[in-house]
Amino acid sequence: MSKKITIAIDAMGGENSPDKILNGINIFLKKNINTDDFFLNLFGDKDILEKKLKDLNISSKSLRIINTKSVVSDDETPLTAIKNSKDTSMWNCIKSQIDGTSDISLSAGNTGVLLVISRMILKMMPKVSKPALAGLWPNQKGLNVVLDLGANIECNENNLVDFAELGSALYKSLYPDNKPYVSLLNIGSEEIKGTETLKKTFKKLKSLSNENNFIFNGYIEGTNIMSGESNVIVTDGFTGNIALKTAEGTAKFITDNLKKTLTESIFSKISIIFSYFSLKKFKDKLDPRKYNGAIFLGLNGPVVKSHGSTDALGFYYSIDLCYKIVKGNLIKQITNNLNHLNNDN
Amino acid sequence: MSKKITIAIDAMGGENSPDKILNGINIFLKKNINTDDFFLNLFGDKDILEKKLKDLNISSKSLRIINTKSVVSDDETPLTAIKNSKDTSMWNCIKSQIDGTSDISLSAGNTGVLLVISRMILKMMPKVSKPALAGLWPNQKGLNVVLDLGANIECNENNLVDFAELGSALYKSLYPDNKPYVSLLNIGSEEIKGTETLKKTFKKLKSLSNENNFIFNGYIEGTNIMSGESNVIVTDGFTGNIALKTAEGTAKFITDNLKKTLTESIFSKISIIFSYFSLKKFKDKLDPRKYNGAIFLGLNGPVVKSHGSTDALGFYYSIDLCYKIVKGNLIKQITNNLNHLNNDN
Fold this sequence. Notes:
2 copies of one chain form a homodimer. The first copy, chain A, is globular. The mean pLDDT of chain A is 91. Chain A starts with a strand and ends with a helix. The first copy, chain A, has 2 domains: 141 residues, Isopropylmalate Dehydrogenase; 169 residues, Isopropylmalate Dehydrogenase (3-Layer(aba) Sandwich). In chain A, α1 packs across α10. An 11-stranded mixed beta sheet of chain A has the order 3-2-1-4-11-10-5-6-9-7-8, sandwiched between helices. The first copy, chain A, is an alpha/beta fold. Chains A and B meet through α8 and α9 of A and α8 and α9 of B.
């Protein structure tokens, strides 16, 4: 039997935990009932977790509980957390990667603390200048990787080039049959547009572009992030965070208005009956829970951050993401890409 | 009789011009058939324009044509345009503001050239550090002013404070009965978040906040640009351009998918019949043509840039915007706000 994919889960972080965590695990186990190539390490209060697992009738065949005494609170700042968090579910979850008992960590807890202690415990990969937070966005053809989403407010050209290598490694681990097409987010598509840092990054990415690592598609504007012309979008953490949240806000504005529209009159209510299945498909495609999970890249081990406010289904999708990332050999893909960078740069 | 609101229109700029320009003027004249407090100065080829006005049966009561020999092409760069554009419809359109024959200029032509020659001809207002391009976004309660949308890639705290004063003056000129609530776009709402420039701007805006000029609402995240909690959103031109275009791209992605959904089966097609009027209202609210027109602020005269690719209805909305801006005394509002800045800063 080959080595199992082992996922460390912080069972206590985020809203409505551990309930949503265990319900999410339940969905994952049911969907993977015929596979046994994975194992889950659950970090949290053993008494609570054991009782809830029993209530949900979850067998302990594919998981075990590692008892931890406390939880990182949402108010904790990254600075104080370094001192205070050694007994927490989050800390021990990530530490299990160093101990060799887990391949990847997943938490829905405090983002700032997770980034700081992940970096502290796992440490940066030797050739990476800055780690980055990557997210998944739907596009017209499937899915984009977008990074950085907020780990680094200010970035130079070397950081952005690293992000291109990290993001395309992630894309390859998730979609082994597709090629990563990298674009650099800018305010125009012409070479003369943008900041000096972007112009320098453009030149470097152009010279690094090749069939094995990534194909550089040039600049991309905000209008085309979701067009599907590229599947890895590179930007600094400030811009990426603004773009992500603006897209979320716009989607909410439109769907709120659509909902209001479709329920305001008796005729439009009748229309819902006729379009029920189509609208359900539409809603499913845009369901943010399907894209739940930001991936912290560039450390000696991958860490996935689930939205704190997601529900059981959203948490299930982030477990599934962890499974795919390890199965797709993310760390090996990153190492290969960074070697390429080192040789050519 | 009091002085009329005089709008200078570049009749030759943008796709499908002068046809869409004249059709847009036609809509404006029909909607304002009972008012005679405005006059339109049309700049372009007199022979072509006269013939088309006759074809459309537009009377010359509220407009006149000023003959110009050439047109700024879309390929022209701002640098060469300074030399080449003195005979163009765009140049003469803006110049009429200096000559005192127009109160505001409107063009659907080359954006880069428009910004450069507007600045050259009209010159910056004495107390403004950088002029800014402002746009209108729909929100849950009505409308936002967002600036800068791309005139200035890099901005310091004084530029951003100026944008707050300029944007709230614009908001007051469009909505004389409402108070402007200013927010600063950032990646978090806590005071400690963001770049050093944003932190310095935050402090300055907080100290300038008052009932007469604008009320400072603190930081805002991308998710809330369209929530309606603020109506003036301040950011640098790089971030603003990325946010605007990402919102446009997201809206397109969602509405394209919705369209596909509602036409994919016979049942969903029937549903459209029942929800026709509601969906039309939904579509109307999101119609980008209603928000057509970016306003170049901070010069000794306002200039409005229409989307080059809009149609007659979109161009009508930008004429209407010009009319409201002059009626709301934008330049006086800006002067008042800048005096406040000067006294308190």
